[in-house]
Amino acid sequence: MLENLQQQPPDKILQLMQMYREDPRDTKIDLGVGVYKNAQGVTPIMRAVKAAEKRLWESETTKAYTALAGDAGFHKVMRELVLADSVAPERVAAAATPGGTGAIHMVLELIKMAGPDATVWLSAPTWPNHPSIIRHLGMKMAEYRYFDNTSRAVDFEGMLADLKTVKAGDVVLLHGCCHNPTGANLNQTQWEQVADVLLERGAIPFIDIAYQGFGDGLDQDAAAVRMLAGRMPEMLIAASCSKNFGVYRERTGIVLAIAPDADTRATTQGNLAHLNRQNFSFPPDHGARLVTIILSDDELRADWMAELEDVRLGMLTIRQQLADELQRLSGSDRFAFIAQHRGMFSRMGATPEQVVELREKHGIYMVGDSRINIAGLNETTVPILARALIDVGV
After folding, report:
1. pLDDT band at 67 (very low <50, low <70, confident <90, very high)
2. Catalytic one of 51, 93, 103, 210
3. Could you check whether the bond before residue 125 is cis, i.e. omega within 30 degrees of 0?
4. Strand pairing class (345-347; 252-258)
5. Residues 179, 115: one domain?
6. Residue 99 and residue 237 in one domain
7. Which of 20, 189, 194, 294 sees the fewest Cβ atoms within 10 Å?
8. Domain end point (choices 273, 296, 319)
């Protein structure tokens, strides 16, 4: 039987990571993998996480399973973090998942169960795992225009024009903040117009929010999600704690499904529990428990928010430094978009050939579409990257 299997296409980012590891140059720079790193190139454990782990170690009395959908306390703190008071809790079903990717997978499975003929609309471009999972599940998929490769900004006219063609019951996947891979975000007025179109067309928004707190702040980054939650009869959300809590390896994510009424919410909750049971039975709990401890304790929450704000401001500083250095070297403002983008990523506008030249000549590793991880830079490497970009003609 196994001889009938076909080789699957390799993950380009994982390939890039392997190439970086095998590169012997001391001057190499990794801007490919989407993991936050501080100025020393380390992904640190946040202070509040360390404190919560100590508290958990001292107080935990069992390693027995949690509930099928995860701990109710985790549901509550994450619902409040993402949605605040934008929707009645009685309308929100929730399930803990192994990371944000697990949440995305579960939402898509829920869509397939509830609306097997629905088309899932993705931004062009989007995170590569979105279409990969959709194809794996055998679901219908389409794209809406999103990014203007010339201006490096959102192609909002194209986006609206495409969304006006979606059918009732279709699902539109939207990045809640810090768009991956482009870094280009909608403003609040544009979000309101998107909501108008979705309501008019009878489409269901599916929000992937993996970087809350990395863009303009915790509440600002959730503003669009909360606005949609207050206006839409139904909405699906996949949220990740990997970035804003730094618990990457703990695989901590959650599905939040907003139903039109309490009865539909109860049915949806049962289906989320069923999907957990089919996929992995009980969800992992360690990371979820840490997040719950932090968000439930005023002192830990304040320290977490302060450290997260330092991370956010640090990335904004690096963005401005890179934009300024490129303006100095190029004598033009064509790189001003870098300072305007938000989150960990920006698309630099390099061709695939220039990306290869950057890697081979300068030891700078970025994804083939020229997406860079801003958090992979520091004060020392910013001018190195800037000179290299100008050298290859970006």
Report:
1. very high
2. 210
3. yes
4. unpaired
5. yes
6. yes
7. 189
8. 296
pLDDT of residue 361: 95
Pick the last residue of a domain from 245, 276, 296: 296
Catalytic site residue from 30, 208, 221, 369: 208
| Number of domains, the chain | 2
User: Residue 119: what pLDDT?
Assistant: 98
d(CA 124, CA 145): 5
Q: Of 69, 184, 238, 243, which is the active-site residue?
A: 243
Q: Is 37 known to be catalytic?
A: no
Residue 59: inside a domain: no
Distance of CA 247 to the CA centre of its chain: 14
Q: Let me know if 243 is a catalytic residue.
A: yes
Determine the structural domain holding residue 321 and report its residue range: 11-45+301-391
Rounded to whole angstroms, how far apart are CA atoms 155 and 101? 27
Token pair for residue 340?
């305007």
Asked if 210 is an active-site residue, the reply is yes
Report pLDDT digits (tens) over 345-379: 999 999 999 999 999 999 999 999 999 999 999 99
Catalytic site includes residue 127:
yes
Which is the catalytic residue, given 30, 95, 121, 127?
127
pLDDT band at residue 41 using 50, 70 and 90 as cut-offs: confident
